[in-house]
Specification:
Spore Coat Polysaccharide Biosynthesis Protein SpsA, Chain A; 13 helices
């Protein structure tokens, strides 16, 4: 009888078959985890020998290996990782990239680091171009590549580990930082937030967003650096990689003020009307309240979105929900009430249902400047 894997390794790749070959070779020589893991290679539409590299590794039969791909349509890392989640079977998932290689005890150490409710934030040593060129498949399989790592790189990672421990002790809300090339997450945690948000296209922020939404749902992020780390093989930067993080095309969406913990475009696509929503109606706005209550429903699984129609003697009540304040276009609310809202949506009772949905959708998609919603300043990574 086949044994279910304990950990699924999701490897994202695009047009780097030489790197992927070395990545899979390092997974093939993992020690102490025989029969305990599976690998899912998720490809962003490569048009080279990437499928052949995967077939070659599958024929060797060292570990169960699946391959997911789709036609290339821009850099869609979030889409790739969601495909990996859907194809995986283990209760614990390790995300990495096809340009990373690992020490032979990497998976065993990640399994040792498992704790209920804890997400593990790993990291990598970035290898320079000359060092990366010296590392061939034989060096990966034998472990000889580890002798090429400079001591100063190891010292730098130890400093990062100490900083991460300080962040944990201080209960920092943004650190340790989750980076998609080495992070381990429980399946139920990913399902709770609907995985990665596929509205992120191009370089960056999709892992920052996952970290934010995991923390919103009560997950604790702890460093994995006391257990293991990976090694990142050099390659030229992607065309969408900015010189500075703040200049990235995805930053504006990441900094949207109103964030649903369960994204709309994730493991499963869903509409705004499917979001579990509590409408706190206003006695002074009975028709608008009634129409919103007709469109939105609150499920027994919990409140994801809360709409407070103003004026109102009540206030926001749901912890962890995305909070929107609903005002008429010419109305104002007290500053104390507005501060508790993540965004303000301006509606009229004469608005059509599609217009109402569109305004609320703009609020939770960070497009408040379109006229129906007003956001507050967002966050940094």
């Amino acid at each position: 009888m086949a044994v279910s894997p304990e950990i699924s390794v999701v490897v994202s790749t695009y047009q780097r078959p030489g790197h992927l070959r070395r990545c899979l070779a390092s997974l093939a020589v993992q020690q102490g985890v025989a029969g305990r893991f599976e690998v899912i290679v998720v490809d962003d539409g490569s048009r080279d020998e990437t499928p052949d590299i995967v077939d070659e590794a599958r024929r060797k039969g060292v570990f169960p290996l699946k391959f997911c791909t789709h036609p290339h349509d821009g850099f869609q890392l979030a889409r790739c990782r969601n495909a990996g989640i859907r194809a995986s079977t283990a209760p614990y998932l390790l995300f990495t990239d096809g340009d990373c290689i690992f020490p032979p005890d990497h998976l065993r150490r990640h399994l040792d680091a498992r704790r209920p409710g804890v997400v593990r934030a790993g990291d990598c040593i970035r290898l320079d171009e000359p060092t990366s060129r010296q590392i061939d498949e034989a060096a990966v399989r034998s472990g000889a590549f580890l002798r090429l790592i400079e001591p100063r790189a190891q010292r730098s990672l130890r400093k990062t580990h100490l900083k991460s421990l300080i962040y944990q002790l201080a209960r920092d809300r943004r650190r340790p930082k989750l980076v998609g090339w080495n992070m381990a997450v429980w399946r139920d945690q990913l399902e709770r937030i609907n995985g990665f948000d596929e509205r992120f296209r191009g370089w960056g922020c999709e892992d920052d967003d996952v970290a934010l939404r995991l923390r919103m749902t009560g997950a604790r992020v702890a460093t994995a650096l006391g257990y293991t780390h990976a090694y990142h093989l050099w390659h030229p930067p992607h065309a969408t990689t900015p010189l500075a993080w703040g200049d990235g095309a995805n930053v504006a969406y990441f900094r949207r003020p109103a964030v649903l913990a369960r994204c709309l475009e994730g493991i499963r696509s869903r509409s705004l009307a499917q979001v579990s929503t509590r409408v706190i109606g206003s006695p002074q706005q009975p028709e608008l309240s009634r129409r919103l209550q007709h469109v939105f429903r609150e499920s027994a699984s919990g409140t994801e979105l809360e709409l407070l129609v103003w004026p109102n003697d009540a206030g926001f009540s749901s912890r962890g929900a995305c909070r929107l304040l609903v005002l008429r276009r010419d109305a104002a609310a007290p500053a104390a009430v507005a501060r508790r809202a993540q965004a303000v949506v301006r509606l009229e009772q004469i608005d059509s249902v599609p217009a109402m949905l569109d305004s609320i959708q703009r609020a939770v998609c960070g497009r408040g400047e379109d006229g129906g919603a007003e956001g507050r300043p967002g966050r940094a990574a």
